[in-house]
Specification:
Distance between the termini: 32 Å
Number of strands: 11
Radius of gyration: 17 Å
Structural class: alpha+beta
Strand content: 25-35%
Strand order of the largest sheet: 6-7-8-9-10-5-11
Shape: globular
Number of helices: 7
Amino acid sequence: MLRLLGRDDPFPAPERALKDPNGLLCAGADLSLERLLDAYRRGIFPWYSGSEPILWWSPDPRMVLFCEELKVSRSLAKSIRNKGFEVKIDAAFSKVIGACAEPRKGEAGTWLGKDMQAAYLALHRAGHARSFETWREGRLVGGLYGVAIGRMFYGESMFSVETDASKVALVGLVEDLRRRGMPLIDCQQRTPLLASLGAREIPRRDFLRRVAALVD
């Protein structure tokens, strides 16, 4: 039975998450700054849509990208060199999150509703949520945003309106994290795009062990 959290209730241990759907841990509580920071420090993230209650997840296995394992294909390297892309950091966070909230092709709605957008904007103002943006000729053409705590980065969503633009932003993120001594990006769940860039799945217990060391 899925546990329903009150405003002041602590999260259950991630190991108690359901196997089907994979990683669903609990529901309820709120999207306050304190609650979100506590969730990420424990390897938990919110993901829900429409009229659903707030749903909290910790899937097993967990998709991650070790910065040292980033794969840049020849075509992506060519795009970085020749297409005139410029990567900026935190120059247009609200525009990035708004673009990520747009429904995907073939989908009627979005998981990134107004409450979620407001919560991540609050995290951004507090210095924990960051955007990496791809610009070309003064126009925002792609980007991503995520949450940074300690030496850990949690990727949340990305968008692109030009070929390779979101990948260019990810390369910029990895370069920035390497400079800061941050070795790991949480990608949450497997996608073909992330796998093509070098991300891979690891057991949840391994992920939680790494998070505990990096967020401290």
